[in-house]
TrEMBL record:
SUPFAM superfamilies: Ribonuclease H-like (SSF53098). Residues 174-339 form the Integrase catalytic domain. One of its GO terms (cellular component) is cytosol. GO terms for molecular function: nucleic acid binding; transposase activity. Keywords: DNA recombination. Pfam families: HTH_38, rve. The keyword Signal does not apply. This is IS30 family transposase. One of its GO terms (biological process) is transposition. It comes from the Bacteria. The keyword DNA-binding does not apply.
Amino acid sequence: MKKKRTFKHLSSFERGRIAEMYERGSSYYAIGKKLGRSASTIRAEIQRGTVKQIKKGYKEVERYFPEAGQYRYEQNRKACMQPYRCDRKECKKFIAYVEREILEKKQSVDGIIGRAKKLKLFSPEEMVCTTTFYSYIEKQLVHVRNIDLPLRVRYRRKKQVVIPTQKRIFGTSIEKRPEEVNLRADFGHWEIDLVIGKIEKDEALLVLTERKTRKEFIEKIKRKTNEEVRKGLSRIFKRAGHVESIFQTITSDNGSEFSRLHELEKSRSIQVYYAHPYAAYERGSNERNNGLIRYRIPKHTSIKRYSKKQISEIEEWINKKPRRIFGYLTADEMFEKEVSRFSSA
């Protein structure tokens, strides 16, 4: 049995076959059966592509030409197609706003449009949805390309096969972490990681991500050592304030630079959990935000090239990104809500 077609429009090849068989005297039904089309489709196409010609003796003759059928089909399509909304006058201001937010502030399409809708910056008639704007990018109807979008274009290296080895966990295993922490139901539970630069001995970025709000703290440290991690954490605690309230647990990997992290359990009453070796997915918030950092600081780039001010700007950019998961509120806004609860308690 011939497979049913999943598309409707005739191709140039099919029009050529129609001309050939119709010239031989085949019926609409016979042509349709051969091409897997209905007789009515063949009839409509032949009527569309039939042209009157004057032969010798001024005799009129009607003949089907596939080129004529294709041309009239295209003209009919143009006549029925509506203009793109991005070309309409009422949408120009909104399109320019989205372009500016992407190109200047490096925000995501969905974040920009969702936030604009939430704050009612534009009327519904002026706006287009996220899917539509992405289609405009693909069709090059706007001044944005895929390369301009965070996380849209990623250069992927071939994955190396890692053979797990038995690695000692320095403190309490993540397996003992409470379920309310795993479910992100409670505030004050953090993930910690390092973003390294060009070489292992280069300066690095100490990152701390709150699991519920995705709030990010980034501190530049001189090298990948226990002592530098301790100093970096002290600076973060000082910046954050309310240490006893908002830092309840920290989840880390098993890197040697975090081997003394469990000492926080005594010095600051912060419970520390260690993830399984080679299980970055257990610190998903870290990994997601690290991807955003890498958009601004590519791999194999020396951290020394970036000033504290530039690092601070990257941190602010991450924390001010509208997030769909929060109804297009930012991590900063979610964090302030949670902190205010502790302050008013």
